[in-house]
Amino acid sequence: MITGPLSSYLGWDLLTHGADCTASGWTVDVRREDGTARGRGLRGLRDSHGCPAEDCDHTGTYDRTTVRIVCAGCHMTYEISGETDISTGHHSHLGYSLPSRRAAGLLLWPGRPFLAWGRASTDEPHDFVVTAPGVTRVTEGAVLGTITQGRGTRGAVCWTACAGPDPDGKYGGWPLRWTHAAEGLRTVTAAARWISARLTADADPSEGP
């Protein structure tokens, strides 16, 4: 499972329009159906829920959510349905769809933080994915680092920076590991400067750490 700011950008696929379609947008509708009967198995028997919880009251049914996505230009249609909940939020807290910002010659893309508690009460409620300038869509290959928020020993906001994606890196986890990491940085800008310096040193070892 992808966590932190990377979850806002990686692991998502773009829906495709028809080959000759020039439209860029979609019409999205959502339908919720309560008490939908579960499908029948190979023997024609209704699948059972098999939930061990004593208070479970939907053994043979489930609440289905269907998302319908339609292009008015080429009429390409997608339907996604399943037993799922709908969560809502605002990009001011989730980060995704907010514009990137420039710092230390890099682009910082706001994303969902790994630890969301108390983030809405800070000046910087997001973590960040870091790319080079000129990137218009964050992909795994474009990511140069991350900046994540934490708390110091006295509760003050501090930042951890990771840089240099490397599958054999000492830091991080799936889907990206990192060659360099630093904790306790005072500001987002300081973290971006640290990442920029590490990337420069990797590109030209004569520059030093």
List keywords for this structure.
209 residues, mainly beta, 3-stranded antiparallel β-sheet, 2 helices, 10% helix, 34% strand, globular
Secondary structure tally, helices: 2
- Rg from Cα: 22 Å
Mean pLDDT: 84
**Which range best describes the helical content: under 10%, 10-25%, 25-40%, 40-55%, 55-70% or over 70%?**
under 10%
What is the 3D shape?
globular
> N- to C-terminal separation?
32 Å
Largest sheet: 7 strands, antiparallel
Our estimate of the beta-strand percent is 25-35%
Helix-strand pattern: EEEHEEEEEEEH
What would you say this structure looks like, in words?
- This protein has about 210 residues and is mainly beta.
- The chain has 2 helices and 10 strands.
- Strand 2 (about 60-70) and strand 3 (about 75-85) form a beta hairpin.
- It is globular and about 65 Å long.
- Residues about 40-45 have low confidence and may be disordered.
Briefly summarize what is shown:
The protein has 209 residues and is mainly beta.
Present the secondary structure layout.
Elements: E1 27-37, E2 61-70, E3 77-83, H1 91-94, E4 101-103, E5 106-111, E6 127-131, E7 143-151, E8 157-165, E9 171-172, E10 177-185, H2 188-203
Antiparallel strand pairs: 1-2, 2-3, 4-5, 5-6, 6-7, 7-8, 8-10, 9-10
